[in-house]
Design a protein that fits this description.
2 copies of one chain form a homodimer.
Chain A (H helix, E strand, L loop, with lengths): L1 H5 L12 H9 L8 H8 L1 H10 L7 E4 L2 H11 L3 E5 L9 E4 L5 H7 L7 E5 L3 E11 L5 E3 L3 E6 L2 E7 L5 H17 L4 E10 L4 E7 L9 H4 L4 H9 L13 E8 L4 E2 L5 H5 L5 E4 L4 E2 L4 E9 L2 H14 L7
Antiparallel strand pairs in A: 1-4, 2-3, 2-4, 5-6, 5-7, 5-9, 7-8, 8-11, 9-10, 11-15, 12-14, 13-15
Helix pairs in contact in A: 2-3, 3-4
Chain lengths: 324, 324
């Protein structure tokens, strides 16, 4: 409340905030963007699915899960494996459990503590690739839509983002259309990351929306005329949105993940900086944890392969969590 | 001393700091870059000239001035007009006075308070254009030299920077050679701005060095692979220097100067942001003063004219110091 009374607008960089607390800011007439109405439609991922489905967006089948028996019934309907998820506070695979058979339903329910957490299930989507679109929506409903990118995930964590994605113009257009519709359906203002599946039969499905600047958009800092961060600020402040055009033919971002538990300062930054064109970002987190996002490297190039080689070469030098 | 004991290195963004105070940091074994030895050779502009002259660099004639009679004698030698300057704490034309004739010598002496301030005189250089080079020098003497740019000054204040300067390859090489030698002569570590004159007979002369990131290098934020700011940090921390290559054919920066005394928040930012490709920087200074540097706009383009149109169009909208 003190912050809100001193600034033009309040925004968030993390969606795991109690909306009831944030609502107090709005009640006093301060500007909060994205609004708690938008956040309420996002934070509960089952509600998010319902909202997107109502807007006519295609997505893998999903269902709320209220018991082990319920989960077993849904598994029969969707087929095994399916992904059991917490409705709230899950990210980067935390709060997800892949249930491979009816026999594993009890294990999944226990792992995610179904007695205490609201859960839902999603049919496993046999996707060919994962795509993402960063999109900024202004207060007056204008959209700045960034290029469709390909994201490479391992263990539910984003490792690499390739911009632009190597997909046909019509698939790219469909991905951008879905992303736009998704953010419209929640009346989002600011920058949003929309994760999509490209299925093996060439369909684009919405996976989920993040109501904030997104890992799949970090490449826009060097790669686009106006970054996802600047456009977020522009949107929240009611300013016109900036160009989402790329400044090079291709950009690739490689995440720097904690290799082990240890100090947050990396080794190898000097070696990484030897590589021309490698843009090294270290987040300054105090502690490295295995798999934790500690930084990223972006490189531009004439094509994705060229940019990826630079980014990967630099990233390979940087180790988080090792003792010096 | 408290800061120095908590960090890897201390650097400066302003050269008007008492070097005796800074020397205490060095005496305790902390790293200060650029060093006080470098700063002492820069802060007194007469000493700076002497140092550059000793290194064999060409520059307009100059002389220390100890009295009005001295100034009149120097004027006879150099010819009128000449530029009378304070040896210390002068920038953006503050501390400069152009003496147009022997009769004006007394006025110049009074304006700059020669009884209290050490002064020197420089022959007026009938330059065709002003050039500048940003250069970062590493702890081990490596140089990252940025493209030669043209700077357009009015009333001794930089208004526009055009990158690259429209000069021949041999002139550009000479400008970069002089800049490199200048920073070597003061054993500078970090980013330096070297201002140069291109004379009407096609010679390049050194005007002065700033021991810090420089206004003529702000275009490198969007215009070059590695900005003058990142390279400064790299140099000071002992990391390898980044590429100074431009990411577009041309970049132009236009300064945003205070139009009058008033609040530091500008009008017209929204209109400026409507212009695609205009990168608007507002420094957040509390108060606008006529002619004070309050921000800048950079634009990239296929040529300087294209970039300059975008930057000027955007800059024209932004007014500092007017009441809303």
């Amino acid at each position: 409340m003190k912050l809100a009374s001193e600034v033009d607008a309040v925004t968030i960089e993390n969606e795991f905030i109690n909306p009831d607390g944030l609502a107090a800011i709005e009640k006093c007439g301060h500007l909060l963007l994205p609004s708690t109405a938008t956040l309420r439609l996002i934070q509960d991922k089952f509600v998010q699915k319902e909202t997107l489905a109502k807007a006519g967006l295609s997505m893998p089948p999903y269902a709320a899960v209220s018991s082990v028996a319920d989960l077993q019934r849904i598994g029969k309907e969707f087929g095994w494996p399916l992904v059991l998820k917490k409705r709230r506070n899950s990210y980067d695979g935390k709060g997800n459990f892949t249930v491979r058979s009816e026999a594993e339903a009890t294990e999944g329910w226990k792992q995610l503590d179904g007695e205490r957490n609201a859960l839902y299930a999603e049919a496993f989507c046999p996707f060919e690739r994962e795509l993402a679109v960063i999109l900024t929506r202004s207060r007056d409903g204008q959209h700045a839509v960034y290029p469709v990118v390909e994201t490479v995930q391992k263990n539910h964590i984003c490792h690499v983002v390739r911009a632009p994605a190597d997909v046909s113009a019509s698939l790219a257009a469909e991905a951008r259309r879905l992303a736009t519709k998704a953010v419209e359906s929640i009346e989002g203002v600011g920058t949003f990351g929309i994760e999509l599946f490209l299925t093996k039969d060439g369909k684009v499905l919405v996976n989920e929306i993040a109501p904030r600047v997104h890992n799949s958009g970090h490449y826009t800092i060097e790669g686009c005329v106006c970054s996802q961060f600047e456009n977020h600020v522009r949107a929240v402040l009611g300013w016109p949105l900036g160009s989402t055009q790329m400044v090079a033919s291709a950009a690739v971002m490689v995440n720097l993940l904690g290799a082990s538990k240890g100090p947050g300062q990396p080794n190898g930054v000097g070696e990484a900086l030897e590589i021309p064109g490698a843009h090294v970002h270290v987040y300054g987190k105090a502690v490295s944890v295995t798999g934790r996002k500690m930084g990223h490297v972006t490189a531009l190039g004439n094509n994705v392969a060229e940019a990826e080689k630079i980014a990967q070469d630099a990233a390979a030098h940087i180790i988080f969590g090792a003792t010096a």
